[in-house]
Amino acid sequence: MPITTALSDLVDGVRASLHSYWKIRAANAAMIIFSESELWASLSLEFENVPVTAEISAPPSAGFAQLRTEIESYITNGRASTDFFLAIISQFESFLSAALVLRGKSADGTLGQLISRAEAAYGISSSCSESQVVAEIRERRNALIHNHGEADQRYLNAASAASVFASFGHIVIGQKLEIDDVYLANAADGLIAYARKF
Questions:
Q1: How far apart, in whole angstroms, are the C-alpha atoms of residue 198 and residue 191?
Q2: Is the separation of the CB atoms in 45 and 61 below 8 Å?
Q3: Least enclosed by CB within 10 Å: which of 26, 92, 100, 160?
Q4: How buried is 187 (Cβ within 10 angstroms: 0-12 exposed, 13-18 middle, 19+ buried)?
Q5: What Cα–Cα distance (Å) separates residue 20 from each residue in 13, 17, 87, 184?
Q6: Is the pLDDT assigned to residue 167 strictly greater than 90?
Q7: What percent of the chain is predicted at pLDDT more than 90?
Q8: For the segment 64-100, what is each residue's pLDDT rounded down to a tens digit?
Q9: 3-state SS string over the chain?
Q10: Which pLDDT tens digit goes with each residue over 140-163?
Q11: Angle at the Cα of 35 (from 65 to 45), degrees rounded to 5?
Q12: Is the pTM of this model over 0.70?
């Protein structure tokens, strides 16, 4: 696959993910309005065709209002935006793997290893602004996954180099890092801008 195809796949995948996220948010806003009517509030939903395993059973039937509350919580507590952030990073990792294979390089390793190997293979400076933005995104991902979502010194160093503080305010060690709508959109732009350097 040529690099242009890998880039196109990344752009399409990130765009589709963000569109899905915005659609979920819009549908939730509509559900809030609908759930105020008595008809919708009393509606009970059954779950059919849900895969059941030895450890995971189908959820019990639930009222529409309860489900709408759960969806609202999923969105407002940051879980939805974080899940979509991790999804676009997964798409970015697939792009890096494809780019490395095109240069005959190994596509195995951590996100940081893939980035370093790809920068070396394509002659991209780790000090260019796009690389610094990707380093901040990588360290935020690492903090979310490996450090209970809290900023550490590695994150602060990457955020400082990428000038994230100017956009998102002062961040200190131990502070919870969140993925809000603005950060999610900027991260998507940052990953695509970086990929366009290949």
A1: 12
A2: yes
A3: 26
A4: buried
A5: 11, 5, 11, 13
A6: no
A7: 70
A8: 778 888 889 999 999 999 999 999 999 999 999 999 9
A9: CCHHHHHHHHHHHHHHHHHHHHHHHHHHHHHHHHHCCHHHHCCEECCCCCCCCCCCCCCCCEEHHHHHHHHHHHHHCCHHHHHHHHHHHHHHHHHHHHHHHHCCCCCCCCHHHHHHHHHHHHCCCCCCHHHHHHHHHHHHHHHHHHCCCECCHHHHHHHHHCCHHHHHCCCCCCCECCCCHHHHHHHHHHHHHHHCCC
A10: 999 999 999 999 999 999 998 988
A11: 45
A12: yes
b/e burial code for range 23-37 (CB count within 10 A of at least 16 → b): eeeeebeebeeebee
Residue 160, amino acid: S
CA distance 10 to 190: 12
Whole-number Å distance between alpha carbons of 77 and 16: 22
